[in-house]
Amino acid sequence: MQQPSNGIIHGQPTDEVVLIDIVSSLSSPYFLQRKPSKAPLTVPLVIPEPQSGEPFDPALAERHTKKREWIKTNLARLQNEYSQHLPLRLSEQLQNTLINDPDVQLADDVYSGEPDLLAFQENLGAAWISYHDTDTQVDLVPVSLQAISLVDIYGSIHHNPLSDWMTLKITIDKEYEYMIPPKSSFLLGPFTSTLPVFRSAFGKSSNTPGFDFVVLDPPWNNRSAKRAKHKDSYKTSTFNVYDLFKLNVTDSLCDGGIVGIWMTNSTKWRTFLLEKLFPAWRVEMVAEWTWVKITVHGEPIFDLEHPARKPYETLILARPLSATRPSSLASSDNNDRQKLEDKVIFATPDIHSRKPCLKGIIKPYLPNSDPRCCEIFARNLTEGWFSWGNEVLRSNWRGFWT
């Protein structure tokens, strides 16, 4: 079945329930086809329960109790109303294996010949700051005519002003090709050391229009990250979660803009977000979108009633405090936008930590019809968006396509 370019298999962006294919939600050249990245689960995983049999996070258990029936009801809808779309993404070349731990299931995420962007950056360290100008923004059109060193890409904003895809040749240990989407821009580098570059380009003093949407997927420290055995797991040693206070995200948002942040199910980090970080950012939670991870047959990837682990992650959506009040929504664009409400997104997991691309479902909620969007801690580029992260180019390596 041919998937739509926004990855939505069933439902409309504003529906309470949306079924998404993660791989086809990513920006991809119309003339290339993405290689299958992971054998999709055909049966739920079996995860041992804690020896005590008791939840290690009582507050999570309480939140789960409140949303359990909502998830169950929508799972039934998925399996009944969307049955014509099941099973999902099966491939004769991919074989599923029943594994007892999803962290091991996600272990082999590295493609043959894939460049190691993290290893390169570890060798640069703080030395980069001494010779890079935070005001530097580079047009990729002349740069693309020849190979460029990753040293020159690192720590500067680069953009593709064209309305078509561009091939960028980058020299690391050897020359690699990267596919750059139309009208996209990116900043490659760790959050803390490249934050001054972001501020200079998109802060209040930059005189650039604010973003309609800023989404973050920080590497929250958790048990799963510690257990993960994949070679290129996101290295939390390069990131201090308390540095998020330095972001001042509202300085980079337009009037009525939205900030979204992907959360683990940890009560510790949820409390940190809602009671400390959001007040510091001067934003207020307005909705919660739940990504329920399913097998190709529409079942949760493991038992919904497991006392310690939940087969879902959440996206917390917030608006600046002033923009959450009706009196601030004065323009016709703002009045036409959809009201943010809770949503459930069904999707089969892909490679480690990859989230569904939100471009296809966030637009109706944004204040402008041609929105400016930003993804922080990104691992791929999105058409028309600004993306920032120390692996921001990873999924745009030419080797990911046939």
Automatic annotation (TrEMBL):
Stored Gene3D superfamilies: Vaccinia Virus protein VP39
InterPro entries according to UniProt: DNA_methylase_N6_adenine_CS (IPR002052), MT-A70-like (IPR007757), SAM-dependent_MTases_sf (IPR029063)
Any one GO molecular-function label of the UniProt entry: methyltransferase activity
Superkingdom in the source lineage: Eukaryota
SUPFAM superfamilies per record: S-adenosyl-L-methionine-dependent methyltransferases
GO biological process: methylation
Protein name: Methyltransferase-like protein 4
Lineage: Eukaryota, Fungi, Dikarya, Ascomycota, Pezizomycotina
GO cellular component: nucleus
Homology family: Belongs to the MT-A70-like family.
